[in-house]
Amino acid sequence: MNTALTILIDGLSYASWLFIVALGLTLVFGVLKILNIAHGSFYALGAYAAASFVGWFATMKFAPEWSLVAMLFAAIAVAVLVAPLTERGLMRFFYGRDEVLLVLVTYALFLVLEDVTKLLWGANPYYVSEPYALFGNVEIGDQVYVGYDFMLMGLAVAIGLAVWWGLNRTRHGKIVLAVIHSEEVAASMGVNVSRVYMLAFSVGIFLAAIGGAFTAPLISVQPGVSVGVIIVSFAVVIIGGLGSIEGAAIGALIVGLARSFAVHVMPEAELFSIYIVMALVLMVRPEGLFQRIQARKI
């Protein structure tokens, strides 16, 4: 029983940050029709920025609780600085082009951002320990779990609900959905499609960055951290279905629980377990579990 509970909690914790990152990936695909290989680099920028902001807050003698605010500011800073440069300076020149070309462009951007992070932060690892200790430990039965993991689960639920509400219950969200369904019709009705692209890309980068920022206390922030993230993020959206919010949630849960089960039962199959699950889903549902008839509906 204790092992099953540990697998469940570890799986939910892993799925939480993964859902946040994958949500940004599927949102960008739904609106811009871009399979963004560089999404993992935005995650890494968020993690590095969080390490820098938390360290700066510590040197300014702020209370440890402010480290959470520092991580949020780090994610916002990445979105505000990187989104305009990337979307206006690069991506908008390739809209409507062949999908393979778009993948190659984002892959080139991924390589550039990898070197940029090394130039800015070097090759040494960074550690963000302050936020991890804020939530103490949680006792369930005779097992003790880290409270930060439960905070991360709550954050994932809050962000998922906020994105769903923003898309389905606000005027700007309905405009975004109109562009997703048909950008030509939306443009003919007076919608500024270019502005919607910028908004969606900015939100996608923010989600990747906030996923990286709040995962930083759990990992060693170092070069190469973006590679593993983009691989498992693609696994999530492939399992759930590209362009689906509920698909991203279910896909993250499946990947998180599969990985957690492998870690506790068969550690040597940790990474392989994700691909097994992805292959099984693709055999039954090649379009993903939640893919609609409208291929890019969120």
From TrEMBL:
It is found in: Cell membrane. The chain crosses the membrane at residues 12-35, 42-60, 66-87, 99-121, 145-167, 196-219, 225-242. It is a multi-pass membrane protein. InterPro entries: ABC_transp_permease, BCAA_transport_permease. Its main location: membrane. GO terms for molecular function: transmembrane transporter activity. It comes from the Bacteria. The keyword Magnesium does not apply. This is Branched-chain amino acid ABC transporter permease. The lineage of its organism: Bacteria, Pseudomonadati, Pseudomonadota, Betaproteobacteria, Burkholderiales.
